[in-house]
Design a protein that fits this description.
By secondary structure, the protein is α+β, with helices and mostly antiparallel strands. Helices cover 26% and strands 22% of the residues.
Amino acid sequence: MKKYNQIIKKMEKNQLTLKQLKLTTDDIVFLKSIGYKVKDQYDPRVRDYVYYIVKGGDMAYIKISEGLKKKEEVKLKLLEISDMHCGCKNFDKVRLR
């Protein structure tokens, strides 16, 4: 479990490939089975899937850049299709572009 503690901390802060994490898909399945919300998505910048852990109220995101003028981090937040449904009071607040 010691191996996983360090990896979990990395996955909570960064989006990393399996190669960067030194994991296999079996390890990802294990993390999901013990209750972590592991998300994966294709990142065209690294041309591979990246994995990260989403906590409580967090949304999925793609980290765009960390090197802006004010050293601010820009994130593109994603809305999962399963989270959008007609009849939801927040449905009209979502603007698709």
